[in-house]
């Protein structure tokens, strides 16, 4: 079997059999930050409640696919409530001012539906840190998931932020959620993961730059699956989850809205 089995499709309609997956390790597109250039993508919704609803739908499908003792590892980054254009990643369409996405005006991006408006986000003021990871998890708990841990992914050597009026953020959240109150978890499988703070440098990829670091995936897979289990990622990107799972003796499967070069 290939080290990274990825199918093209919509994460809200997963192709996998019910009860066939032991653990899901995934990082959805962050809201309002990147246009990945395909129809029906998640992350470019006009308001954050629409984004949350889309992720709840994806998680519901993932829960259907999980074994009764299965788990979901969900990595989410936060953002600030600002008026901004949603642009492709720097690797899409070339770099520099020749890139059409950089040359487009605000009005052109608006006409393409690739802008976000701070005034349209309910309950938030301009410049507020949105708290999206926790808003998403709150909705998942309301939908029936068990929230078991919030892991702080501390990212040394990350890109510095330029904001002059607050500290530079250097962490993201990784949530452990379970389908049922009792689930498979082997705490002895990775001694470095016994704490809820994981210090792991960011990953680097090919055509898809926003990739998981291998070590982060390795810890999740070790803790919540055994060799022979199926490990899935409904936002597969460059296939890091599948590749790491395969190397650990699991079956790695993934889905994405388009194909990326690892």
Write the layout of secondary structure elements.
Elements: E1 5-8, E2 21-26, H1 48-65, E3 66-76, E4 84-85, H2 100-103, H3 106-111, E5 115-116, H4 132-142, E6 146-154, E7 171-178, E8 197-199, H5 214-224, E9 230-233, H6 240-247, E10 251-256
Parallel strand pairs: 1-10, 2-3, 2-9, 6-8, 9-10
Antiparallel strand pairs: 3-7, 4-5, 6-7
Quick overview:
With 262 residues, the protein is an alpha/beta fold. The chain has helices at 48-65, 100-103, 106-111, 132-142, 214-224, 240-247; strands spanning 5-8, 21-26, 66-76, 84-85, 115-116, 146-154, 171-178, 197-199, 230-233, 251-256.
Written overview of the protein:
- With 262 residues, this protein is an alpha/beta fold.
- The protein has one domain (5-256): Rossmann fold, CATH 3.40.50.
- Helix content is 22%, strand content 21%.
- It is built from 6 helices and 10 strands.
- It has helices at residues 48-65, 100-103, 106-111, 132-142, 214-224, 240-247; strands spanning 5-8, 21-26, 66-76, 84-85, 115-116, 146-154, 171-178, 197-199, 230-233, 251-256.
- It has an 8-stranded mixed beta sheet with strand order 1-10-9-2-3-7-6-8, sandwiched between helices. A two-stranded antiparallel sheet has the order 4-5.
- β2 (21-26), α1 (48-65) and β3 (66-76) form a beta-alpha-beta unit.
- α1 (48-65) packs across α4 and α5 packs across α6.
- The longest helix has 18 residues, at 48-65.
